[in-house]
Design a protein that fits this description.
By secondary structure, the protein is mainly beta. Helices cover 0% and strands 56% of the residues.
Length: 166
């Protein structure tokens, strides 16, 4: 059974890959077990929902995933892989996209237009606090944290188009 699939992310132990499967005007959040080739559907909503960018936590317990719901809302949710519970990290009128974990699992970083321009924000898992990490005024997307947890690379939008910034 061939799937139209995108946005892969390896689990920390590399036994599984999270991805988005598209088809029939909808998509679903799935896991592929690399040893058995078995695909498990984690989320398949009844409403037209678009998932994107699933990212494993460093512990492998959680998936942060971008979710576009009807009405144009774009938020970040956590899926607990132990019990399947879904917890919204953001649930507001801002467009929140491109989740990325800190290497310690303490924060989920993401791009958001909540200031009128896409900047990087951090959601602290233990406290539920939200922090604005950047203030460029030009647009930052797709945060990626370095292995030493000290540097972040982003896609930065400027007058000449997109560049990589650190």
């Amino acid at each position: 059974d061939r799937l139209r699939a995108r946005d892969p992310d390896f689990a920390p132990d590399t036994d599984q890959v999270a991805f988005i499967a598209d088809g029939g005007g909808r998509n679903r959040l799935c896991l592929l077990d690399l040893s058995t080739r078995e695909v498990t559907t984690l989320l398949e909503p009844d409403e037209p929902t678009a998932f994107h960018s699933p990212r494993f936590s460093p512990s492998g317990r959680w998936l942060a995933v971008g979710v576009h719901r009807p009405g144009g809302l774009a938020d970040i949710e956590l899926v607990d892989l132990r019990n399947g519970w879904v917890t919204p990290l953001t649930e507001d009128v801002a467009n929140d996209i491109n989740p990325c974990w800190s290497r310690t699992g303490r924060f989920v970083y993401f791009a958001s237009d909540r200031t009128g321009v896409y900047e990087v924000f951090a959601f602290e898992i233990s406290t539920g606090r939200l922090y604005q990490c950047t203030s460029t005024g030009t647009g930052l997307f797709e945060p990626a944290v370095s292995p030493d947890n000290r540097t972040m690379a982003v896609s930065a939008y400027g007058a000449g188009g997109y560049d990589i910034a650190v």
